[in-house]
Write a structure and sequence with these properties.
256 residues; alpha/beta; TIM Barrel; eight-stranded parallel β-barrel; 11 helices; 45% helix; IolE/XylAMocC-like
């Protein structure tokens, strides 16, 4: 398995020096940049041995995906095209569509309508991303972050609903633990699972010790499906230089 960290692109050389395999950055942070600023970032990444192989935080926070004020298809398509072209230039191979606030549907709006709206938005993203060789995944989020798609199983159901070859599954250990979700849902996802996130569910901090959380069950399920993909640490830290190497050491052991 490849091990990475969700962090700003400015930290890419730090991760390279620590021994990580890639960096996971935010899509909306690069899609909105002026051309000159983006070219500076691209030059930074081009000079590094590791790349931004994964990008999350896909949509802008002010773009609604559900409800009566949802963005139109042309708006989503234009954004998705720009995002894919820029991300591909940074070496991105996977998009993570989380965006709990953007997909949260308002009170009084039917969940089925919201699911249809969100599914269509993801389908548009998949179509544009496929042109640049980028796979799209849907991230399940715990109920405190969104009222739509709260488990790996629900995400898998959505993927089946979309039925697009470029939309795949991801699993986030932190959200699974917050929702008391069975790790067997990873086994049900099987070959559809192409990406994962992890954090100590006690405070959403960097994993450091094997006994601090039920990491064994998570990695046990991944091993059962022969998972060979990426694991990104998506966690809070006040000291990246201290916490990241400890997490890398632990995750390498768990991956073995």
């Amino acid at each position: 398995m490849k091990i990475g960290v969700c962090t700003g692109i400015e930290n890419i050389y730090k991760l390279e020096e620590m021994g990580f395999d890639y960096l996971e950055a935010g899509v909306n942070s690069i899609a909105s940049l002026e051309k000159e600023k983006f070219l500076e970032l691209r030059k930074l990444v081009d000079g590094c041995s590791i790349k931004c192989e994964v990008m999350n935080a896909y949509f802008p926070w002010d773009m609604r995906l559900t409800g009566p004020d949802a963005a139109g298809e042309s708006t989503v398509s234009d954004y998705a095209r720009r995002a894919a072209e820029r991300a591909a230039a940074l070496g991105t191979r996977i998009f993570v569509v989380g965006n709990g606030g953007a997909r949260r549907f308002p009170d009084g709006w039917e969940m089925e309508k919201a699911l249809d709206q969100f599914a269509r938005a993801v389908e548009i993203v998949a179509e544009e991303s496929s042109k640049c060789g980028i796979i799209v995944t849907v991230e399940p989020l715990n109920k405190s972050e969104s009222n739509l798609i709260n488990s790996v199983k629900e995400s898998l159901d959505l993927i089946k609903k979309i039925n697009h070859g470029n939309v795949m599954q991801m699993a986030d250990f932190y959200h699974m633990r917050k929702e008391s979700e069975s790790m067997d849902d990873i086994i049900e996802a099987g070959e559809a699972l192409v990406h994962t996130h992890i954090a100590n569910s006690n405070g959403r901090v960097f994993p450091r010790e094997s006994g601090e959380d039920d990491y064994e069950s998570f990695f046990g399920a991944l091993k059962k499906i022969g998972y060979k993909g990426r694991v990104s640490v998506e966690a809070n830290t006040k000291d990246l230089g201290r916490d990241a190497p400890a997490a890398l050491s632990l995750l390498r052991k768990l991956a073995r």
